Structure formats: structure tokens, C-alpha cells
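Go through the following before class.
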Amino acid sequence: MEEPGWSADAGGAVYRSRDPVRNLRIRVHIQRVTSTSLLLQQLQQPAAQQGKELISLATFSAHPAASGYRPDDEEEAVIGWQEKLFSQFEVDLYQHESACQTPLDRQYHQEILKLEKSGGRKNYRIFTYTDHDRFTNLEEQCQKVTSSEQEVPSFLAERMANLRRRRQDRRPTEGSVLKSRVITWEPSEEFIKNNHVINTPVQTMYIMGDLGPYGTLGHREYEHVLCTVKVDGNGVITVKPDFTGTKGAYRIELDGEKRELWRYTIENASAQVQQEEEEREQRMFRDLYSRHKEYLNGLVGSDFE
């Protein structure tokens, strides 16, 4: 049974928006739950249930001197769509020009040099992988369909993963086909290969957390996915897990002797449209529709019945 204040539902949610996706903003807040705060919670619950007087536990309060609280125990970041926040691992890797093999690597090398000149990166534990990063390609191509650790992707699964990674939007080509050719009676092998499945272009972004111990940031084994955001060409936005809202924070429990516990929240921080702007947009659409209607009536003429 889940503890109070934690969200047991880590499922995703699908949203639809007509606004440009560049306006999307997501606020992520991550916090390390100290062992002393857990001890305080465990001691308070049995005493409250049994109706006994609770001994004062002021010495266990979340105070820097008592619990060892450090600034990197907690972090918050507001992230835009496809905004790149470097991890410590990427900073250590791309700051050496010899490690850069692709144009994207060399671009990251230049950006990291600029960050170092401006005082270094502002984020420490929260970082992102954008649609063009290697992590995104590998994560989407290596998706498992079962819970088995020995699962080997089938030939079909690999081919379908390859197909999902194609970014070409074929809608302009499809739109140029005459309406009389709704059905292709004699399809070629190339036509069957390219059109047997709907291929909607999708862009992906991962918001990550480096949950390593003090002084050991930059190790891949401590990287955890906090949130996955996918947007397709039709304005459909998939967020997994969903925005926290009133459900409570999500939790990540690390393996190891200490079994450290982290909590994090995800919020929609996008700027809300003002009422005046919304009314102005509605008036613009009504004016556009009325002009289009007048244009069509002008083409038909008044003699048509």
C-alpha cells in the first residue's frame, strides 16, 4: 500500500493543443527524501494510531545541522520544448574536442565552452535529452514488450522501431494525389513497403534526473527518466507520467545499501492565454469564416438554386 502523499499512478496522459509547441513549458521539482525525515514519519504514524503521547522529536527536524541537508538535495527547473540542459556526464565528455565525432557533438562542444566562460551550467541534477540525442534514438529502438530481462527484440519489432524513427512527413506528397485515386488497384512493392502503416512524425524529449550520491554526479547508472514528452504533427502531446496536479508526488527508490528515496513533481508551467487575447482570436476566426463564406457565395452566384 502506498504511503500518503505519494502518487501510485505513473501512467501517461494525452493532450491536444492548437498552439505552437514552442510555447510548452514544464516545471520539474526534485527532492531527496532524507533518512531522518523518514524516521520521523515512521515514529509519528504508530503513535498517532495508538493514541499515545508523542515524544518531542525536534532533534529529527529537517535542519541543515541535524539532518545533513545540502543544496543539491533539491532542485527545480522550468524546461521548454526541446530545450537542451547538459548533464555532468555530457559536460565531461564534450568539453574535449577529441571526443566529438558528429556535427551535433561539435555543436555541443561549442555550447559547453560558452557555458564554462559564462560561469558554468545552472542545473546540476535535472537535465534533458532532446530528439536528436543518441539516448532518444536508442531508447525508442530498444523498447521491450515484455517484462523479461532475457527478451530479444524480434525482426518485426526492430523494423517497426526503425519505421517510427523516420521523420519525413509525407502529407504534402499524399495531398498531391488526385482524389480519383483513393484506391490503388495495382500497388507496387515499394508502395506497399512505404504505406502499409500510418507513419505520423513524432518528436520526443526526455527530462532526466542524475540521482548520484554527493560528489559523484556524471555516472550513467544514476540517470533516471523523470518525464517523457512526445509531440506529433497533429498537435497531440503525450506526457508520461502525467502532470502531478493533486495526485501527489512521484517517487524513485534507488537500489543499494542506503536505498535512497527521491520525490519529484511535474507541472504545466506554460503561459496561460489572457481572456482578451482569446476573445480577439475568436473574433478573428469568425471574421475569417464570414469572408470565406462570402467568397464561396460569390463564386456560386445568386442565380444558383
The radius of gyration is 26 Å. Residues 275-300 form the longest helix (26 residues). Residues 52-67, 167-179 have pLDDT under 50 and may be disordered. Strands lie at 13-16, 25-33, 74-80, 126-129, 202-210, 223-232, 236-240, 250-253, 261-268.
